[in-house]
Amino acid sequence: MNIKHFLENPPSYLALKKILLNLSKKYNFIELYSIGKSWLNKDIFCISIGNINDATIFVGAVHSQEWLTTLLLIKLINKISLAISYNLKLYNLDIRKEFKTKGIIIIPMLNPDGVEIAIKGPSAGKIFSDNISNILSYSNKKWQSNARGVDLNHNFDAGFSILKKIEEKAGITKPAVTQYGGDFPHSERESKAIVDFILYNQNKINKLIAFHSQGEEIFYKYGNTINFKGKFIADIISKNSGYKLIENFGLASHGGLKDWFLEKLKKPALTLEIGRGENPLPITQLDEIYRKLAYSLILSIFI
Ligand SMILES: [Zn+2]
User: Fold this and answer.
1) I need a labelling partner for 135 at 20 to 30 A (CA). Which of 95, 98, 126, 258 fits?
2) Domain count, the chain
């Protein structure tokens, strides 16, 4: 598996595993590990580079159809690794030096079961496949949840009881293709894994960016909770990419990873909606998305 091939195809779990193994073998400064398992026992992979005592965490593919975020993060890891390896400047930044004081932790695919279902269809849901087919037959939307029909970005402990009321009003009371938040906060293996990982490392992790698609938008608030450094970083990303700053509304306003991180850790947290169009976004958008975002994303690690 070479990087070019990986970036030209939807990221199957096996392809992701192979490319991460390759990258960690090629670059001795990359640490590769798993923060836990999905319901179908897939590893939730994590890569870290640099001084992770003061680290930014990037999280991709929270939603199944949004796997272009995984490709974006792997492309970013590859560029950073090349710059460190050959001691090259990246956007005029002395990358090797910068990573001596700061670090990056990247979870390229939080929802590996969901992405596999999005790419290969309900049969990829294995023991859950009948249930997935059944849920899909009642919906005209595409699968965004995990294998159990829980929307991971509605499963975090931030305004959960309020979110449940909003879901009920919208008629979402059981597992669904999208927007069902689960029975209780962190009921899902995937959300529990990242929450436990972040809490265990909370003194080391200084900010979070969750990657979604689409809309070219940046969400930086949770209710009335604003972190001013987070707003500052959102402004930098917006200025450099043309992405718009947005305040949450409706169903998307509670239960998210960014919401939980902002409220619980009181540190900067953003949701970035990459690209424009219908999910899954075509791979042909990757280069343009990267071109718009790479500079400010790399800069955000060192702020
Ligand atoms: Zn999303």
Assistant:
1) 258
2) 1
